[in-house]
Design brief:
This protein is an alpha/beta fold and about 700 residues long. The protein is built from 27 helices and 20 strands. The strands form five sheets. Strands 5-4-3-6-7-10-9 form a seven-stranded mixed β-sheet, with helices on both faces. A seven-stranded mixed β-sheet has the order 15-14-13-16-17-20-19, sandwiched between helices. Helix 18 packs across helix 19. The longest helix is centred in the N-terminal third of the chain and has 25 residues. The termini are far apart.
C-alpha cells in the first residue's frame, strides 16, 4: 500500500495532549470564576453581568471550546425571567446538566471553579477529588447547552448522515451529549450504544436513561482492551468525538491494535467510522483549549488498519470531521521510501509518539512480571536465596522481551546483591549513588522494596483467569498512588544496573564532557545523570539539576547532603522556563523529557521554554536530547513514553538548532546532539510577547464590547 507522508513546516507539535492544570488558566478566566462564586454566595446579580462582560471579551480571543461558553450560559440563565428559565430547563439534556451542577447548593459547580482556577488547591493524594474534577471538566465542556456556539453541532450532525433505524456505537460517549441526539435520530427501530470507561460518566448515563425512560440506548462499560461491545453485535456507525488523540498518543501498540480491531469487528461491511477531533490552528485564529492531533496522523495510521477516508470537512478551524469506511485489511508490506528533511512517513500502524499508558494510575505490570515479582517478594519475606535466584533468572529472561527500561534490571541488581558475598557487595556499593539507592530501598530488611513489590504487582489480588500475558493491569488497593509512583521512578531512574539496557557508559563517552565544564541536567529526576556529570566535570565544574517535581528534587538534595557533593546545584523550575542563568552552560542535557515538552506543552509554553534554553547556552554549547524511540511491530518497546526522533529534529530546526550527531544506542533509545545556529529563529514576536503579558495580568481584548446597564 502507498504510505502517507506528512510535511512538517513549522515549530508547532503535531500532537498535543492537554491537562487540567495548564497555562491556559488566565487572569480573565479567574476573574469570571470569582464573579460566579460571588453570585452564588451573595445573590448579587451585578456579579453576573460583570462575569458576562468578562466572558464576552474572553470567548473571541482565547480558549476556544473551553468552559467559558458554559459558564456564561449559566450567568444568562440566572439573569433570565422565571418563565424563560422554566422553558430552558424543560429540555431534558439541559435540565439534567443544570441539576448536576446545582444540587446541594451548587456543590459541584463550586468545587469545579475552586479547583480549576486554584482558588483552593487539590489535596495531595486525594484520588476521588482528582477524578471528580476531571469528570466535571469533561461534563461542563461537552454537555454544555451552548456547545453549538463553538462547535457547530447541527452542521456536523447533518454531515454524519445517520438515519432512522441505524445502529450507532458512541465510543467515549462521556455523559452522552451525542448519544441522546443519535437516539432521537435512529428512533425506535435503531439502537445507540453509549460506550464509556469513566465510572462517573457511566453513573450519569444510567440515571439519565432511567429518568427519561429511553428504550433505544444501552450503556456499555468498556476498557482500553476494546470498545466493549459483545463480539456478536454489529453496528452501522462507530462514532468517536475528542478521543482518537488519546488512542493515538496514549495507548500502547498492543492496546491500540486490540481497540481498533474491536471497532473493525463491530462494524458491518461498508460501515462508517466517524472521528471528530481538534486541529492545531496556526496564525490569527485561536487554538482549541486542549488536546489536538494533526489529522494526517490519523488517516495515515487508520489506512494500515483497513479504513479508507471517504469524506472530511471543517466548519471551524479548530475542529475537523473524518469519515472512513471499513475495507479489507491491506496485504503485503508497505512500500519503502527515504524520508526527506522535515517529512514524516507513516509506514505502519505504529504511532509516532506515545506519552503514557492510559487507564492506569501507575506504570502497571504484565502477568509475566507479576509472577516473577511474586517469587521475589516471597524470597525476601522468607529470606530464601533459592527463590531470589529464581526471581533473578526470571527477570534476566524477561527484560529484553518486554517493557524495556522498566524496573526488571533494578530487581536483578537487588537479587545479585542478596546472592553476593561481602566483598562483592562492597564493590556494588562503591559508587555513592548506588550506596544511597541501596539504603533507600534496602534498609530495615528491605522494608520499602517489599512494600513496593506487594503494591506494584498487586500481589494480594489473584491473577485473572485466562489473562493475556501482554495485558497491563493497575493496582486497585488503598495504598497511596503518589507514594507508589515516587518509589517507581526512583527505582527505575536511579537503578545502578541501568547500563544493562541503556548503554549508559557509551552515552557518557560520546558527550565530549571535560573537567571544569558547566552542564545543565534538565528534568533531572532523582539525579542519576547529574551524578555522572558531577564525576566528569569535577570540583572546578558545575552541574545545574533542574526539576519541576519537588519530591524528586528532595531525593537528590538528600543524596547531595549525605555524600557531601559540592558541584551539583538543585533548582526548582517551571514548564515554561529552563531556570538557568544566561550564558551559563556548555551543555544542556535532557533525558526522557523532550517527548513531554513536545506533546504536553501548549505552544506558547514550549516557545518560552526553548527560548530560555537558547539563552542559557554559551557560544558553541550543545543541546543533548536522549529519549525513547517508537519501535516497529515485533520489536519490544520502551515501557513508557516514546517519540520518533524525526519529530524532534524537525521541530528544533524551526527553533534554530541543527542536528550535529545522532546515536541509536538500542532500538528503544536514541541520543541527538544539536548546535544552535540561529538564536533568533523561533523567538516570540513582540505581538506574541504582549499577548502573553495580557494572559498573565488581564484579558487580551481585540474589541471592547458595549457596556451593559447594571441592576
Amino acid at each position: 500500500m502507498k504510505n502517507l507522508t506528512i510535511s512538517i513546516n513549522s515549530k508547532d507539535s503535531l500532537v498535543h495532549l492537554g491537562s487540567l492544570d495548564s497555562f491556559d488558566i488566565t487572569a480573565g478566566g479567574k476573574r469570571g470564576g470569582r464573579l460566579i462564586l460571588d453570585y452564588l454566595k451573595t445573590g448579587n446579580k451585578k456579579s453576573l453581568r460583570r462575569a458576562i462582560d468578562v466572558y464576552e471579551r474572553l470567548i473571541p480571543n482565547e480558549n476556544f471550546g473551553g468552559e467559558y461558553t458554559a459558564l456564561e450560559w449559566l450567568c444568562r440563565l440566572w439573569l433570565s425571567p422565571e418563565e424563560a428559565q422554566k422553558d430552558l430547563l424543560s429540555v431534558p439534556s439541559v435540565n439534567s446538566f443544570y441539576k448536576l451542577l446545582s444540587e446541594n447548593d451548587f456543590e459541584n459547580l463550586k468545587e469545579y471553579i475552586n479547583l480549576k482556577y486554584h482558588f483552593r488547591e487539590k489535596e495531595k493524594g486525594n484520588i476521588k477529588e482528582k477524578d471528580n474534577l476531571r469528570f466535571l471538566e469533561d461534563f461542563i465542556l461537552f454537555c454544555n447547552p451552548d456547545r453549538e456556539r463553538w462547535e457547530k453541532t447541527r452542521a456536523n450532525m447533518e454531515k454524519f448522515n445517520i438515519k432512522e433505524g441505524d445502529r450507532v456505537a458512541d465510543v467515549g460517549s462521556g455523559s452522552g451529549y451525542y448519544t441522546f441526539k443519535f437516539a432521537d435520530i435512529v428512533g425506535e427501530k435503531g439502537k445507540v450504544y453509549a460506550i464509556e470507561t469513566n465510572p462517573l460518566h457511566l453513573d450519569y448515563l444510567d440515571k439519565y436513561v432511567e429518568d427519561y425512560d429511553i428504550k433505544n440506548v444501552e450503556v456499555v462499560k468498556s476498557s482500553f482492551d476494546g470498545i466493549g461491545l459483545h463480539p456478536d453485535i454489529r453496528v452501522d456507525v462507530v462514532y468517536m468525538c475528542s478521543l482518537y488523540h488519546n488512542v493515538y498518543a496514549a495507548f500502547t501498540d498492543y492496546e491500540r491494535d486490540r481497540f481498533v480491531g474491536s471497532i473493525r469487528n463491530a462494524l458491518v461491511d461498508g460501515g462508517k467510522l466517524i472521528i471528530v477531533d481538534n486541529d492545531l490552528v496556526e496564525g490569527k485564529d485561536i487554538p482549541y483549549h486542549g488536546p489536538y492531533i494533526n489529522q494526517q496522523l490519523i488517516t495515515g495510521q487508520l489506512a494500515h488498519y483497513g479504513f479508507k477516508l471517504i469524506d472530511t470537512y471543517q466548519f471551524t478551524p479548530q475542529r475537523y470531521v473524518l469519515i472512513f469506511t471499513k475495507e479489507d485489511l491491506p496485504e503485503g508490506k508497505p512500500e519503502t521510501c527515504e524520508d526527506q528533511p522535515n517529512q514524516l512517513t507513516i509506514a505502519s500502524a505504529a504511532s509516532r509518539i506515545r506519552y503514557r499508558i492510559i487507564g492506569t494510575r501507575t506504570s502497571g505490570y504484565t502477568i509475566r512480571g507479576k509472577r516473577i515479582g511474586k517469587i521475589m517478594y516471597q524470597g525476601l519475606m522468607e529470606n530464601n536465596k533459592d527463590l531470589i535466584r529464581q526471581a533473578m533468572e526470571g527477570f534476566e529472561e524477561l527484560w529484553p522481551q518486554e517493557r524495556i527500561g522498566d524496573e526488571y534490571t533494578a530487581q536483578i541488581w537487588f537479587c545479585r546483591y542478596i546472592l553476593a558475598d561481602e566483598e562483592a557487595r562492597k564493590a556494588m556499593l562503591a559508587d555513592p549513588l548506588a550506596d544511597y539507592y541501596f539504603h533507600y530501598f534496602g534498609d530495615d530488611d528491605f522494608k520499602v522494596l517489599k512494600q513496593y513489590l506487594l503494591v506494584k504487582y498487586d500481589l494480594e489480588r489473584p491473577e485473572p483467569e485466562n489473562a493475556s500475558m501482554e495485558l497491563c493491569y493497575d493496582y486497585e488497593g488503598d495504598f497511596s498512588i503518589d507514594q507508589l509512583n515516587e518509589w517507581n521512578e526512583f527505582l527505575i531512574f536511579n537503578n545502578p544496573n541501568r547500563g544493562a539496557w541503556e548503554k549508559t557508559e557509551e552515552m557518557m563517552e560520546n558527550l565530549g564532557l571535560e573537567s571544569g565544564m558547566a552542564v545543565a541536567d534538565i528534568g533531572c529526576g532523582g539525579g542519576f545523570f547529574s551524578h555522572q556529570f558531577s564525576k566528569i566535570v569535577g570540583p572546578t565544574g558545575q552541574v545545574y539539576s533542574t526539576e519541576i517535581n519537588k519530591d524528586a528534587l528532595q531525593y537528590l538534595e538528600a543524596f547531595i547532603k549525605a555524600k557531601n557533593v559540592t558541584n551539583i546545584k538543585p533548582m526548582v523550575t517551571r514548564m515554561n522556563e529552563a531556570g538557568l542563568p544566561r550564558n551559563s552552560v556548555d551543555m544542556i542535557f535532557m533525558c526522557s523529557m523532550y517527548h513531554a515538552v513536545y506533546i504536553t506543552d501548549i505552544e506558547f509554553v514550549k516557545d518560552q521554554f526553548i527560548s530560555t534554553v537558547k539563552k542559557a547556552l554559551r557560544p558553541g554549547g550543545k543541546l543533548v536530547i536522549v529519549d525513547n524511540d517508537v519501535t516497529e511491530p515485533g520489536v519490544p518497546s520502551y515501557y513508557g513514553p516514546g517519540i520518533d526522533p524525526k519529530l524532534i529534529i524537525a521541530q528544533l530546526h524551526y527553533y534554530g538548532f541543527e542536528l550535529e550527531k545522532r546515536w541509536q544506542l538500542i532500538p528503544q533509545r536514541f541520543m541527538l546532539v544539536f548546535k544552535l545556529v540561529d538564536p533568533a529563529m523561533g523567538e516570540p514576536s513582540t505581538k506574541q510577547k504582549i499577548k502573553s503579558l495580557f494572559r498573565k495580568v488581564g484579558t487580551y481584548v481585540k474589541k471592547k464590547p458595549p457596556k451593559r446597564d447594571e441592576e
